[in-house]
Amino acid sequence: MDRRTLIAAGTVALTGGLPHPAAASSEASAAPASLSIAGLGLPVIDGGRLRNYVFVALRLELGAGKTMEQIKPKEAFFRDALVRAAHRTPFTVPGDWTRLDERALSAALVSASAAISGRGSIRRVEIVSQTPRRRTGMQPPH
């Protein structure tokens, strides 16, 4: 008897041959598919000057009917659209050069996703982390 058969037989014996009710309910309410984008450096621009970079990690929650296989090849386009938007209208938080405005960043990426992969392809953008290049970056008082 090989190892896989032995493990499978032991698992069936422990569960009584029936799937666990909690496992069945968690499969039914599975989380929507998502695409992770890590290590994206976005500028913090204040007063027309580059003040800092903030590296973000994002999780894009895919819309209904979209699969990972459809969206994954377009990851570079999402990155490019976000970097372009950050240079055009910076996501700077007034008075703080170490963070980005999460709502503005999310809105820019969701609107860009309509042109990249079709309307409704990205349902939600979650900012997983923000790591500033320079940790000190409070705007000096004027």
Structure characterization notes:
It contains 5 helices and 5 strands. With 142 residues, the chain is an alpha+beta fold. The longest helix is centred in the last third of the chain and has 16 residues, at 102-117.
CA-atom Rg in angstroms: 22 Å
Share in helix: 25-40%
- Work out the helix count: 5
Which sequence of strands runs across the widest sheet?
A: 1-2-5
- Give the strand tally: 5
Task: State the major sheet.
Answer: 3 strands, antiparallel
N to C succession of SSEs? HHEEHHEEHE
What is the global morphology?
Answer: elongated
Instruction: Kindly report how far apart the N and C termini lie.
Output: 77 Å
Arithmetic mean of pLDDT: 81
Structural class, judged by helices and strands? alpha+beta
Which residue ranges are poorly predicted, with pLDDT under 50 across at least 5 consecutive positions?
A: 23-28
Q: Report the β-strand fraction as a percent range.
A: 25-35%
Concise structural overview:
This protein has five helices and five strands; from the N terminus they run ααββααββαβ. The protein has 142 residues and is an alpha+beta fold. The chain starts with a helix and ends in a 10-residue tail after the last strand.
